[in-house]
Amino acid sequence: MTSLAVILAAGEGARMRPLTATRPKAMLPVAGRPILEHLLVECRAAGISDFIFVVGFREEIIRNYFNDGSSWGVRIRYVSQRHPLGTADALRQAGPWLHAPFVLINGDVVVKAEDIRLLKEMAPPAISLVECDDVTGMGVAEVSGCRVVKLHEKPAVPPTRLVNAGIYHLSSNVLATAANTGTSSRGEYEITATLQLLIDSGVEVGYRMINTWRDIGNPWELLSANEDYLSTIESYSEGKLEPGSMITGPVSIGRDSLIRSGCYITGPVIIGANCDIGPNCYIRPATTIGDHCRLGAAVEIKNSVIMSGTHIPHLSYVGDSVIGERCNLGAGTNVANVRLDGQMVITGRGGRRKAGVIMGDKVQTGINSSINPGTIIGCEAVIGPGAVVAGNIGAGARVF
């Protein structure tokens, strides 16, 4: 039985900026843990004990977080992909350690253990597929019976709605074909091209439809993934609740966090370690707050991801937003998350009628600043007192 997984986590994730300006995409937090950690845990539950992490962009963050894997009861080896030359090239880098069947998985997908286990039971080569209504910008497959007959990498006119889920069961035999894979129109060596070479040579590539899957292709989809994971949590607390605070629904509170009097928290909500919340805060469902965060008096947070070290001191509202690490929002900062005309804020794949702000790390806002729906603010930008911002604010910008 296959017990090795190769996880592709070398990419920067340019479409996820500014959140990935300072961290690999696979290390973006969802429900209080990196996407990559969720994936490792699901793989472990599927019977995988050995991992090869192919790393590149800001790889030290991944190495320092996971180390040798012993904290999770697994073994991790790291392979560096120095240049972003595609998934088949990443597989080549891991080649010297691949001597038995293995699972190859994109490090930024959301998938469950049962679907990984069922794919492992198939003879390699085999891939996972999922049917989606909107396949814009995705790789799709054509099938005949129980075989894949054609793989398309982000076609302009998709021939099917069967999306390549980025999860493969392969044997070491694929390495020779990967070595002969040419570059795509994007200048990359892609694993889908490798598999197409196998198909064209007469090798049968099987497939299995999977049940639970999410590809986080843009920053707003991080909110949807967060909602998915939070829907499964249970109440847990290592913190302190002052008298007069109220909690309903499943809420997880980390070690040494303080929930001050007058706070009202409606789960599902995760609050990390060493946080100081309140007094009189209102934290609404589908919110994750990282470690070492400070939420001051009369702050309201709804359906958002607040990363570690961020301070939202008092009299502010944040809804349907992702706030990076070590941001500091001035008193009275308000994030609008709905258009007055009721139209979609974000259209296309992953569209949202409610969307606030995507904010990179170390952003500062002044008192009474206002952020319009769908705004993106780059790392270390400064939004001055009373300023109103909209659209795309670049990294390091000063808006007064």
From TrEMBL:
Gene3D superfamilies the record matches: Hexapeptide repeat proteins, Spore Coat Polysaccharide Biosynthesis Protein SpsA, Chain A
Pathway membership: Nucleotide-sugar biosynthesis; UDP-N-acetyl-alpha-D-glucosamine biosynthesis; N-acetyl-alpha-D-glucosamine 1-phosphate from alpha-D-glucosamine 6-phosphate (route II): step 2/2; Nucleotide-sugar biosynthesis; UDP-N-acetyl-alpha-D-glucosamine biosynthesis; UDP-N-acetyl-alpha-D-glucosamine from N-acetyl-alpha-D-glucosamine 1-phosphate: step 1/1
Location of the Mannose-1-phosphate guanyltransferase C-terminal domain: 265-349
CDD domains recorded: LbH_G1P_TT_C_like, NTP_transferase
Coiled coil: none
Domain of life: Bacteria
GO function term, MF aspect, one: glucosamine-1-phosphate N-acetyltransferase activity
UniProtKB keywords: Acyltransferase, Multifunctional enzyme, Nucleotidyltransferase, Transferase
Stretches assigned to the Nucleotidyl transferase domain: 5-230
One Pfam assignment: NTP_transferase
EC number(s) given by UniProt: 2.3.1.157, 2.7.7.23
Catalytic reaction list: N-acetyl-alpha-D-glucosamine 1-phosphate + UTP + H(+) = UDP-N-acetyl-alpha-D-glucosamine + diphosphate; alpha-D-glucosamine 1-phosphate + acetyl-CoA = N-acetyl-alpha-D-glucosamine 1-phosphate + CoA + H(+)
Family statement drawn from the similarity comment of this UniProt entry: In the C-terminal section; belongs to the transferase hexapeptide repeat family. In the N-terminal section; belongs to the N-acetylglucosamine-1-phosphate uridyltransferase family.
Protein name: Bifunctional sugar-1-phosphate nucleotidylyltransferase/acetyltransferase
Name of the gene encoding the protein in the UniProt record: glmU
